[in-house]
Design a protein that fits this description.
The structure is a single chain. This protein has one domain: putative 2-phosphosulfolactate phosphatase (Alpha-Beta Complex). A 5-stranded mixed β-sheet has the order 1-4-11-5-10. It has a 4-stranded mixed β-sheet with strand order 6-9-7-8, sandwiched between helices. The protein has a two-stranded antiparallel sheet with strand order 2-3. The chain is an alpha/beta fold and 264 residues long. It is 30% helix and 24% strand. The longest helix has 14 residues.
């Protein structure tokens, strides 16, 4: 298994853009984009610029599938009790969440894109809590903007970042339970960085690598029905969605995910 450049920093130099509207055909030069890869909650706490909180298996893949089902709103929350309290406040909300990969007691769905595809969520309000991904969101307090990161919308996310032309991008790899570096999040960070740098990336090899990775074994273990094989395929359906998910706060201080559609 090749290393995927943990905690690596690189630069992206955007091309010079000439504008006919400028006097004397002067060219505008974009500032260099610093890209840093970091890990876990501590990395999220220190993330600067645009922070991309990456959780491929399965939080932010699930969030994209939820959004594609026409939900009204998604609230990512860090703690289980907070999710339940928010549900009481909102009223008619759908609870989605896991700990140790399993659906939480009293929740409507687990953290499974397979379950979400089969659900009728149009117009529903979602409250989502997970072991890793949502922890990154609530802790990325120093970032100028926060986006979710997953293979299913990586290209759209990179296109949005390019449109913002930030000085710095921090790719936060949440890993397994936010305590152990994982192949899928490392590889997704490499893919997003390659897109930002206009570099080639072999999607076929990425899927092959992940299918053979020990971090994917749960999806093919018949003793873990809460992680079906179809979840692997759905999480590794690279660039299925043409939207980014940006984190914002409502008037009550609750985090929610905003869909940013990207024009092809």
């Amino acid at each position: 298994m090749p290393g995927f450049g943990r905690n690596k920093t690189s630069n992206f130099y955007a091309p010079y853009l000439a504008s006919n509207a400028l006097k004397n055909d002067q060219e505008l030069k974009h500032k260099p984009m610093e890209i840093e890869q970091v890990n876990f909650v501590e990395g999220a706490k220190n993330a600067e610029g645009i922070a991309v909180i990456i959780d491929v298996f399965r939080a932010f893949s699930v969030a994209c599938y939820c959004m594609s089902k026409g939900v009204a709103k998604i609230f990512p929350v860090g703690e289980v009790d907070e999710a339940r309290e928010l549900s009481k406040t909102i009223g008619a909300a759908v609870l989605i969440g896991e700990r140790k990969g399993k659906r939480l007691p009293g929740f409507d769905y687990g953290n499974s894109p397979t379950e979400i595809l089969a659900a009728d969520l149009k117009g529903k309000i979602i409250i989502h809590t997970t072991h890793a991904g949502t922890q990154g969101i609530v802790n990325a307090t120093r970032a100028d903007e926060v986006l979710t990161g997953a293979f299913v919308n990586a290209k759209a996310t990179s296109e949005y970042i390019k449109s913002r032309n930030p000085e710095k991008v921090t790719l936060v790899k949440m890993g397994l339970e936010a305590i152990k570096a994982s192949d899928e999040d490392d590889l997704c960070a490499e893919y997003i960085e390659s897109l930002l740098n206009n570099q080639d990336f072999d999607q076929y090899e990425a899927v092959k690598t992940m299918r053979e990775s020990p971090f994917s074994a749960r999806f093919f273990d018949p003793e873990k029905p809460w992680s079906p094989p179809s979840d692997f395929d759905l999480c590794m359906d690279i660039d299925r969605f043409n939207f980014a998910l940006r984190v914002s706060k409502d008037s009550s201080g609750n985090f929610n995910l905003e869909r940013i559609d990207i024009n092809s």
